[in-house]
Amino acid sequence: MKKYRYRIRFKDRVGMVRDISEIVAQGGANIVSLEVKRGEIYLQVEPLPEEKLSYIIHRISHIPDVYEVTSVEWMPHELAEQQLRTVINSVQEGILSVSKKLIINTCNARAMQILGINYPPVGKPLYEVLKLPDEVLELIRSGKPLEQKEVAISSSRGSIRVMVNSKPIFDDKGEIAGAVLTIMKMSEIRRLAHSLTRPVMVTFDDIIHRSRKIKDLIELAKTVAKSDSTILLRGESGTGKELFARAIHIESPRREYPFVVVNCAAIPDTLLESELFGYADGTFTGARRGGRPGLFEFAHKGTIFLDEIAEIPPHIQAKLLRVLQEGSVRRLGEMEEIRVDVRIIAATNRPLEEMVSRGDFRADLFYRLNVIPIYLPPLREHKEDIPVLVDYFIKKFNQKFNKSVQGISPDALELILNYPWPGNIRELENVMERAMNLCKEHIIKTKDIIINSPPILFSPSEKFMHLKEMVEETEKEALVRALSQGGSARKAAKILGVSHTTVIKKMKKYGITLE
């Protein structure tokens, strides 16, 4: 289609616009658009027969001081609008501009995508397209800026949560002329935050091994990583369950999305529910203004790793079951459910079957979690991996402590191989770190290896322990008995009359595990 747009270049003088306008009018044409710059005039005329158009352009080219008339594709304002439209459509945020009466003037492609509409809603009232709370609309009307307001809005795909920002537009007199709104999905904001803050993830190549048993486990984990099925990692403390969970996430199609770790035993009962599922504004004393999304929302499209899953109390077990069944969460203090797309990897060192039979763990939740069980064997069942693990830890601590230890003596390695390692790989790492600190030569000797040393050391001449040591020994014995009787940290806390957090801290202090 022929464009009726021209650039006229001339030696600047008074009356040039008048001369051009008269020729166009005499030729029987209307001027659609005229833009004047220094030494240039851009002219757009209405469609004309070819002979009339040629006559007009010929006469313009012979106006005194005109030295060039060329056809152009765009008028300057059209080009500027096209460039602005391209910029607006290229950003990640949805952009809407509205008039003083909240009528939509501009809507970019991203906003249409977020709102689930197929056409620009230009000319429509804002409330018909974006259902914002009344207090937000009032802020926009009054010309007050709005920053990072999280709201739930309705779209063709259901309810979604977005972050809304608004900046007022003022006219030449300083009066309110409208506003520009930006909207962004909360799931995308969390993904961006994850991309900026995520730690270095591990892969299956980072799992140090030589044994066939671990090699077969890695092959199994690589296979199941491709699906979205729930995985339950079983094994004693220190066997590398979190390491496997991270490697599974990196091997999965969700690798570009968050990997969220939740230690269910380390979070008090009173906080665990709000941490997992989030809460609404004003739900409880001390709640953050505006509410807070839970870890399931943060893990949207990614993976959540629920470590020590057996420690979750019954009322949270019920909510977790709903997430597995329905794929939705409900914040504390809200009735609305939020859809989440999360893969769950759980881990435990507890006998869940026995807990189910005692009524301490829901049977339906156990079956939902136990879709793909993976058992990580204790170190004593794959001792052929110990030499390569020892070499790995020597290299690791050489770098950390700026040492140059070259290896380990045969006697020292034999000592390590003959130990049953109840704390598994984590205990081996601690022993090697201790040995690297004690080693004064280039080879680790048996004297550098201290395994299972008693927590209280005193000389043979001493007949009694200090009072502090006696108190700690008594405290440790009471803790072990309560854990043995109760079977969990939470029940031990009830037996001892202390908080669950106190029991966890004491267990860490004395190196006590539930085994």
UniProtKB/TrEMBL annotation:
GO terms for molecular function: ATP binding; DNA binding. Residues 207-437 form the Sigma-54 factor interaction domain. Keywords: Activator, Aromatic hydrocarbons catabolism, ATP-binding, DNA-binding, Nucleotide-binding, Transcription, Transcription regulation. Pfam families: AAA_lid_14, ACT_4, HTH_50, PAS, Sigma54_activat. The keyword DNA-binding applies. PANTHER family: C4-DICARBOXYLATE TRANSPORT TRANSCRIPTIONAL REGULATORY PROTEIN DCTD, TRANSCRIPTIONAL REGULATORY PROTEIN. This is HTH-type transcriptional regulatory protein TyrR. It comes from Caldanaerovirga acetigignens.
